[in-house]
Write the structure tokens for this entry.
Amino acid sequence: MASITKQPTRSLQTVLDPRGQPTAEIQPLSLAPRLDSLDGKTVYLVDIGFGGGWEFLQEAAAWLQRNIASVRTELRHKKGNMFLDDPELFAEIAERGDAVIFGVGG
Amino acid sequence: MASARFADFAATDSQNHGMNLRFSFPPYPLVGRPREVLRQYAEGRDPVTGRPLMPQVVDALTRPLTEEEKNPKPGRGAPRPRLLNPDTEENLQRLFLENDWTDGLPIVMPTEERVAHMLTGTAADPNEVVGRMTITTLQEKLEYTVEKVAVNAVMAGAGPEHLPVILALAASQEGSMPSSTTSFGRMAFVNGPIREEIGMNCGLGALSPFNHANAVIGRAWTLMTINLGDSRLGETFMGSTGNPLNYNNMFFAENEERSVWEPFHVRRGFKKEESAVTIFRGWSAINSMGAAGCCRPAQEEMLLILQAFPAVSGSITFVMDPLVAKHLKEQGFQTPRQLSEWISANFKMPAGQFFGSDLGYSFGNPLARDGVEPFSTWWKLPPETMITPYFRPELIDSVVVGGETQALWFTTDMVWSQTISIDRWRPKTGVYQKDEREIRRREARRKRHAAALKASGYEY
């Protein structure tokens, strides 16, 4: 059993902070430069895999096509489940795409 | 883009990833909504900003970056001091509750004196780094030392004798309640001599709140997950209903003495005389609610109960009374592995049922799309075709616990994660001061149990 020292209720106690220490393992990154417009550009829409995301992104791609006639859209599934990286797809986007929309979280 | 329910989480999450991402939010939820509704979402407004959604997305892709977006500052917090400001017990209890540093129950205050006493339970240096933990998938982890683990052990009501097990759990660097909206649970159990040395219960009512060691070690894992794994309700923890397993994490000891099978840790490469704690990940457990072998063999009843699980992980774990293990051995399963192979070969489910669940959609479908077998083949089958989703026997486990008053078992969707050495964290002497009164109490209970079994005519 833990030994619990009895102390009067009103006396002051010094206790230890129970929380872990923040680390410096995440380094800040700049966002990618923005485009002047989407005219004539290729926009990838990448479904990360949560339910309903693919169907919603189909509608989002259709909206872009209806409203920005010259935009090209590429709707893609990310490889694997939502927690996994997909370096091949991201390399393809860097080479062939101008912008990317990731979704849909949750 | 993220659905609007996760606007707060998305902001914190992106900062923790070191980027000021530009989010837009369609209404929540998207899953299960008719196509027409999703079209209205795309043509409608972002409920968080009130602006038209898709024009906002276009703006996010074309509006020049701000200085802060070009040069983001680290989102991490400042180092935390070792000691909190002195205060009364009453005020400190309130401080811990208001800061969500507890599980909602009163705690033992981690005074310097109590933490120092706790640290006598290990030979490890208080400043030794035990690990890093986060309950999220990729957010920045918090680092913790032996002393930080001891602080949370004190809060849980543990004694120094429990610390090696708690340190082994901490060394797993695995929280007991992940961030997931699906509300995960965890299960953990101890094998080896330390079970007896610290008075754990592996027999009658071992999974119920009747044993000090089982209770405080399981609770300590929850408190460590909160404080060392950075579990904050609505900020990092998003489990929709939560999970009652999170209170104690189904923490027990295996009943090695009454099991007809080899102890679990031995099957994982440890020696019988070594002590180890094993961690399982999953969501739920279903009680068999009846005796094995009453009307049909337990293994056949297991197949029926398994229909309740989505089976996508391909893993299942049976937590069974010694009577069930004995019954299964009489059925011809000389080892748990033989039972695993039988379940693997004999459990069948329609392919449409397998891919038709939310988990099937999220985890089975990507594997099928990526050409991973057997998922790719199953995906092409008519929905009514029967498949064997537990096709890897090594993902089917059994563990024995209980007091032999009923031949029942729990079927769980738990999957083995780690088996970790406890002995690494023992005190220098390696042994504990014996509590003679407690030993007498346990011995008396054991004798009563053995006498009851013998008097019942049961082959003891």
About this structure: Chain B is about 35% helix and 10% strand. The mean pLDDT of chain B is 93. Chain B has two domains: 4-70, 92-348+388-425.
